[in-house]
Task: structure prediction
Amino acid sequence: MVGKMIDTKHFKDMLKERNIPLDMVNTTIALPDRIEEKDDGTIHYLKYFDNQMRRWLRVVVNMKSQPPRRITAFFDRRLRKK
Result:
């Protein structure tokens, strides 16, 4: 589990624009179904929400900054539940 994080303006704007509740973001980071570590120093946390949504939420965190910085969040249409 990652400790304290800060949110970028873009992150906050995207949650509002995409109607993503902050509790879904927090759940995705705390209990991800998948984690992807990228070469650019970001970690992508992915969680499948099987309620009425049936969608994957992807939360991108820049781990190079201290404290880590949440960059963006979006429902990833490229992923399908397997």
Summary: Residues 28 and 73 are 10 Å apart (CA to CA). The first strand starts at residue 6 and ends at 7.
